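Intended use. Records like the one below are meant for learning the mapping from a protein sequence to its folded structure. Do not use them to infer anything beyond what is encoded.
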Amino acid sequence: MSPRTPYTPFTGVRANPFDTINVGALPLLPEEDDEPLASLYNTILRFIQVNCTGVLELSEKINAKNRKTGRRLNSIAQSSESPQLAPTNGSIAELGLNMQGFEIMANVIWAEIGRSIMEELGSVVFSAGNPSEFQKNYTITNNFITALEHLAPSIQAVEMMREHPIYNSFQRRWQLPVYFQLRWKEIVGGLEDTLANPSFQKGEAIPEDFATPQAAAFYTAIQACWSSGVFIPELAHRFWRLTLQLLSRYKSWVDSNLPPREQPLPNAGVDISASGSGFASRASTPIATNEPTDTSAVDEATLQRLVNAYLDISAIRRRVWDLWKAEIGMLLPEDTRNEVQKPEGGHGSIRTLSP
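Structure written out for the chain above:
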């Protein structure tokens, strides 16, 4: 899976749409030959800009005037002691004023678009059977919604759109838990297949810095959680938990496959006297044996396994830290980042991978 690339202005994280792009701009989605959904969304955006901008601006002027009038009348109603001016229950509605105004973006444009996508394209857009297609449709659709919000005439119009019942129904159609379970099986299942060979032997066609294919597979699994074709911002906490589980799994795998830390020194054919002096008996005659040669081969193999384990652990620590600084730390929510700074958080999990 390809490494994650920085988000475009159409990030899935829902922020204030007026922070980065000027109101009224037309932020079209990137189109590719195999992306008919993006092409459809761009057609809708162009239509709204050409045919609806004037209506949106006019309705916003009326709404702004109503909001201003409503604040003034509210102030009068609350402060006036005259029964002719103050409504019986303090409600502006009794003065015959409709303070809602014209919410064209929420009640007309978005309501029609959202309903049409759910009814006519729902079986394709929201289907989680193919994780790659689901993630692509989710990203493109949320980018479209963000672009649509850029065309809204005010922040109040965006807020009304997000509070619309169809907007809430639309967001509930995404089967994010199902998508994560499919990705979990994909990532963990591929890793366990590689761990079927519990050894620290060097492998071929593995990334630089790694000595064994098992360590490379662990890092590939961690990297996949944050890759551009897998990661979804709303599932950041789940992918972070999976990352910690992968690190814990690697530590336990290393502990279970390393040779014992202390082994008795091999007996190189030396006859120990009964007095326990540690010197060979002069009366005894050394017997030729192949044991020293065999022991030397075992020691060399053990040393090579330890060296490979050291190289792999060092590479895992270095690469995961780099991934944290470049991507993970920026993609996690702020509260999760603060939690990670604690000793028992993610930083502590990486520190436990000590060579």
